[in-house]
């Protein structure tokens, strides 16, 4: 016991000594500014804060500052995205983004779709056979993050534009500053990632619920089946003079299984039901549908077939 | 809206045909996401495509599907990642 207490004490002292000059770093945030005077030349007062502090109590002036700053942030953002896309071509930033991608993928839980969507790494993480090469991983990550940044920026921008309609009492200068800083942050890779993380869980639930409900593969059609499907769909357009309620109901009754519409159903409603039948039809079911449509005189024939 | 699957082993022309075949039933492509096909039992990547139904009789203009190049002046209707011939690539859909 005596042997271990000395090293422990020594370690504790060493930690205190080493950290005495770097408390801000250990604190995990910026240094406190509460002891500082609010001065225009302070490094903690940005030009935007200074302008807002001087003129932000006047609605017209406040909105002019907002307008100018939005434009400046937008210009800087578009310049950054262009640079990012150029670097996408040259691959300069590749390793950083790839690491970032794997980091994001690791933080998302459960849904492989989401991981793939945002980081492009799920194929690797899940041990999939899909070959995702380094170039693709980089490209899709950049694309996904820029999309996320765009979405996040739109969200914050809408909040700013809506708030700017209010008087300065409701939307005071300090709130403006907060929102402008948030808008700028939304246009960073870190902002994009935080947006992805906050929306991924919500999105995952929606996606999984949707996708689990018997999603099937799209049927591959040959040339004549394609022409037939086009013709059948076109026959349900309101512009088809032969598309009458009687004709639609007759066609529905001739299908297997038959479609029996309510007596109060309109032509549009019956057409919608028939359209769903065409949409869901297997390729070999298109011909019987055509026969029902011909018998009901919705079409005379599908000449493209 | 509703979802359909496009296999991950198709080439760009095959993907375009499948999208077009679906749209002939009066619907329009919205977006695609890569996913693992749980039904297949193997770890197979597929494209889960979202469509929105249109009014009866409405067929959108034929789509074209190309690899994203960033060269075109006009923005695509959709840009995103799809599994093409087993590889994840960034593609663009235009009309």
What does this structure look like?
The complex is a heterodimer of chains A (305) and B (95). Chain A contains 14 helices and one strand, in the order H-H-H-H-H-H-H-H-H-H-E-H-H-H-H. By secondary structure, chain B is mainly beta. Chain B is 13% helix and 48% strand. Chain B is built from one helix and six strands. In chain B, the strands form two sheets. Chain B has a three-stranded antiparallel sheet, covered by helices on one side. Chain B has a three-stranded antiparallel sheet with strand order 4-6-5, covered by helices on one side. Chain B starts with a strand and ends with a strand. The mean pLDDT of chain B is 85. Chains A and B meet through helix 4, helix 6, helix 8, helix 10 and strand 1 of A and strand 1, helix 1, strand 2, strand 3 and strand 5 of B.
| Multimeric organization | heterodimer
Number of helices of chain B: 1
Q: Please mark out the parts of chain A with pLDDT under 50 across 5 or more consecutive residues, or reply none.
A: 1-25, 91-99, 101-137
Q: What's the main sheet of chain A like?
A: none
Strand content of chain A: under 5%
Widest beta sheet: strand line-up of chain B: 1-3-2
Features of the shown structure:
heterodimer; A: 305 residues; mainly alpha; elongated; disordered N terminus; B: 95 residues; mainly beta; three-stranded antiparallel sheet; 6 strands; globular
Secondary structure layout plus pairing:
The complex is a heterodimer of chains A (305) and B (95).
Chain A: H1 2-19, H2 23-27, H3 47-55, H4 59-90, H5 94-107, H6 112-119, H7 122-125, H8 134-163, H9 173-186, H10 189-212, E1 216-217, H11 223-235, H12 245-254, H13 267-280, H14 286-295
Helix pairs in contact in A: 3-4, 3-9, 4-8, 4-9, 5-6, 5-8, 8-9, 8-10, 11-14, 12-13, 12-14
Chain B: E1 2-7, H1 12-23, E2 27-37, E3 44-53, E4 64-67, E5 78-84, E6 87-94
Brief write-up:
Chain A has 305 residues and is mainly alpha-helical. Chain A contains 14 helices and one strand. By secondary structure, chain B is mainly β.
